[in-house]
Design goal:
The complex is a heterodimer of chains A (150) and B (212). Chain A has 150 residues and is mainly α. Chain A has helices at residues 7-29, 38-56, 58-64, 67-90, 110-139. In chain A, helix 2 (38-56) packs across helix 3, helix 2 packs parallel to helix 5 and helix 4 packs antiparallel against helix 5. The longest helix of chain A is centred in the last third of the chain and has 30 residues, at 110-139. Chain A is elongated and about 65 Å long. By secondary structure, chain B is an all-alpha fold. Chain B has a domain at 8-116: NADH-ubiquinone/plastoquinone oxidoreductase chain 6, subunit NuoJ (Four Helix Bundle (Hemerythrin (Met), subunit A)), CATH 1.20.120. Helix content of chain B is 72%, strand content 0%. Classes of the chains: A mainly alpha (150), B mainly alpha (212). At the A-B interface, helix 2, helix 3, helix 4 and helix 5 of A face helix 3, helix 6, helix 7, helix 8 and helix 9 of B.
């Protein structure tokens, strides 16, 4: 269990995870221009943590990204998305009417940009948090994953 | 585009990819080792993602690669740890019912395919109805280059809110059924505490390699 024959796996994973997370953020913030958006970015970010958990063990992953944190992030994401809707309501518009966020005339794009970026952030938080919660729920039931278990 | 002269290269790519999907599906159905099945289903998702890109559905392909090949493979690996590693072989008589259902569904699907418009057909309902309207007005309405983003976020914002909520509810439901998974962390900490109190100098800390 404490053997070191996974050293290549560990080294490669350590270099890969930052790239995966960076790519997830790229997908998130480049969604206005290319394919992708909150859903895909959330899954990619979650997969980065899951890869860490598969190689270094679920407990170490839980120390880095605690389960309480993942489920709070999921809830905050949904709250953020729904909150943008209420923000539009408070500004006198209809629910999720981004045009109303800054009370713009028709043709103004500022509210659309801000609204979509915020809801995409909500989707990112919601999806990545929920995915990690699901993974922890499954993987966390086994105390230690030994090599023979695969 | 492919109406007047069929693109042979694209047809070959389609045939190869769909053939690969078929082979992988047969292998999944015949294998008994769950680990191999999980890995093959990841490969299945990856090949279908490539195929989606080949038919110009880049967003769908991207999602399939991230969710199907990445996420669900990882979750299935986690779920596999909770059960045995091999599936029990079914009696061949009991395989008859599912086989008949599969064949019937397949015949119906192939029958339905006859009515489908060709890939990229400009006169198909998807390209003449609301899709065309989105393409025309999205830039003026929102000023966002990728038309998929305003459709998802703006025109169909309620849909996406519902989807996000569904994902959140799914996560909470799984956690409520299986627990939040903190048992493994708690057990590890307990073991470490025991080890530390037993023989303090020989700690596990070396192996954990502090990342901070």
């Amino acid at each position: 269990m404490k053997s070191d024959h996974h050293v290549i796996l560990r080294v490669i994973t350590k270099t890969l995870i930052p790239v995966i997370v960076l790519y997830g953020l790229y997908v998130q913030f480049h969604g206005d221009f290319g394919p992708g958006g909150g859903f895909q970015a959330g899954v990619i970010l979650a997969v980065g943590v899951i890869l860490y958990a598969l190689v270094f063990g679920v407990p170490s992953a839980m120390r880095a990204v605690p389960p309480a944190f993942t489920r709070s992030v999921a809830a905050i994401g949904v709250l953020l998305y729904a909150g943008v809707g209420f923000w539009a309501l408070l500004q006198g518009g209809q629910y999720l009417e981004y045009q109303a966020l800054f009370q713009e005339e028709p043709g103004g794009h500022h509210g659309q940009h801000v609204g979509i970026i915020l809801i995409e952030l909500g989707v990112l938080f919601g999806v990545s948090g929920a995915m990690l919660t699901i993974f922890y729920a499954f993987a966390g039931r086994v105390a230690e994953i030994r090599d023979e278990d695969w | 585009m492919a109406m007047s002269e069929p693109d042979i290269g694209l047809a070959l790519v389609n045939i190869v990819l769909l053939g690969l999907l078929f082979v992988v599906a047969i292998a999944i159905a015949r294998l008994r080792s769950l680990f191999a099945i999980v890995m093959l289903s990841g490969i299945y998702s990856l090949v279908s993602a490539v195929w989606y890109v080949a038919v110009d559905a880049v967003d769908v392909g991207f999602t399939e690669a991230a969710v199907g090949a990445g996420m669900s493979t990882a979750v299935l690996l986690g779920a596999m740890l909770l059960t045995s590693r091999t599936a029990k072989p079914e009696k061949s008589l009991r395989q008859l019912g599912p086989l008949l259902v599969c064949i019937a569904t397949g015949i119906m699907l192939i029958y339905a395919t006859v009515d489908l418009p060709a890939v990229g057909d400009p006169n198909s309902p998807a390209n003449t109805g609301v899709g065309l309207t989105y393409l025309r007005v999205a830039w003026y309405d929102t000023g966002i280059e990728n038309v998929v983003t305003p459709v998802l976020g703006s025109y169909r914002g309620f849909d996406t809110l519902g989807e996000t909520t569904v994902v959140f509810v799914a996560g909470i439901a799984v956690a409520l059924l299986l627990g939040f998974g903190e048992r493994s962390l708690a057990e590890t900490i307990r073991n470490e505490d025991k080890n530390l109190s037993k023989n303090a100098p020989k700690s596990d800390a070396e192996d954990e390699e502090s990342d901070s």
